[in-house]
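Input chain follows. Return structure tokens only.
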Amino acid sequence: MIESVESERPSIVLVVDGSELNRLLAKTTLEGEGHRVVLAASGAEGIAAFEREPPDCVLLDVRMPDIDGFTVCEHIRSLAGGADIPVVFFTASRDVETFDRALRAGADDFLTKPLRPAELLVRVQTALKLRRVRGELHEHYELLKRQRNDLLRLQLQKERLTAFLVHDLKNPVNAMDLHAQLLLRDHELPSSMQGSVQQIRTQAQRLHRMILNLLDLSKSDEGKLAPRLARVDVRSLVDEILDELRPVAQPVEVVLESLVDAEPLRADPDLVRRTLINLVENSIRHAPPGSRVTVSSRADAQGMELRVSDEGPGIPPEMRERIFDAFVQIDAWSRGRTVGGRGLGLAFCKAAVESHDGTIWVEDGAPGAIFCVRLPR
């Protein structure tokens, strides 16, 4: 902003010096380079000239008959806009005390007399450039500050939304699931309604998992997703998961099969369970009717690999890395079928597996996709 204004007009340089010779020398040198020069013969005149029209740079003599340059500089710095104007002192004294006092008063540069036109011009041009740079940096700082505030505001809104999801949605979803279970236990419930109630329960459980996935993704972003390690009987866990998801698979004619033969593993039971549910449910959504979704295992001394495979169209090679990013969906993956999914399940799986220092990836099943999870022992 400052640079564009200064490019449209000559820079104004205020020269405050008790010596008429020095004032004329400065005026001739600077006007020859296109600057506009305002002259003042005393400290009081210099302050008055600054107040009338703030310059872009001030050349200020240390010794003057009424007010010395240190006092003038301090006064200028106290005026509106005076803190940003470069002040160049010049004096015949070449001692450390004068130099230090000029710096304390707010000097930006320091010239010694007698004045040399070439050096004077270089110092003024440098002071003007530094002022432009300071102005640009200030603009960048203000921009970064606004962006930081916007990000902080978004983060607070995200935390508020997460709290809403956890505290205000979990309870009614759990209540829906509970009442669906009560209805299923009612022996007087007509058989024609049992399938609908089972669907209510299945979708309530799915919604509950989506809420937990979103919560855990938020924790992962903040580095707070920490597994609670315990003994996990993988074979029994997979059997339970497949039993739970058979009501989802049967309407689309998909068979669920376990080929898991693995020793127990130390991991977070809830995170492993939800990871496998997400992977199996994901495979069911993309498996063609009459096909099979299989969960198998491989183990060695370093860890265990769990593999969830389907017979669907698979995932294009160029998408196999991105598929684990949040909110990424591949419509063509479904071969024209209308499938669910909001791009959160696989992102959660990656966060959950990596919280165990494990890895997750996808392979070509030829046909289908194979999602592989490797957890260390």
